Description:
mainly alpha, globular
Amino acid sequence: KLLTTLAMTIISVVLLLSVFTEKFILRCLIKSITGHDCPFCGAQRALSHLMHGDFGKAFLANPFIFIIFPYTALVALCICNVFPEGSAMRRFAYNKYTIIFFGTVTILWGILRNTDFIIYFSIRTI
């Protein structure tokens, strides 16, 4: 539990710093190596735009954040024991079908966002 709490704290601090200071935005390792966007490329910019109330720019930075962020927040709350053992929220978060669903959606988004279909319809204004 201590290791999980420490990891969550470090990740939270890095995300908060990257949201409030654009100089601290981390480079994507997958994009640096392959040249292709990973499913989460643009997520830091999207979170920054969300924190400033600009939902349109957040959507353009990475629309997937609107799908995965609520689930990620739910899992984080479960890890921090906000929901009691056996609660419906905890059962949903840790259900194998929920995990398979979000894992599959993440993989499909990672593939789809690098196809010509998405590139053709995307508006890269950011």
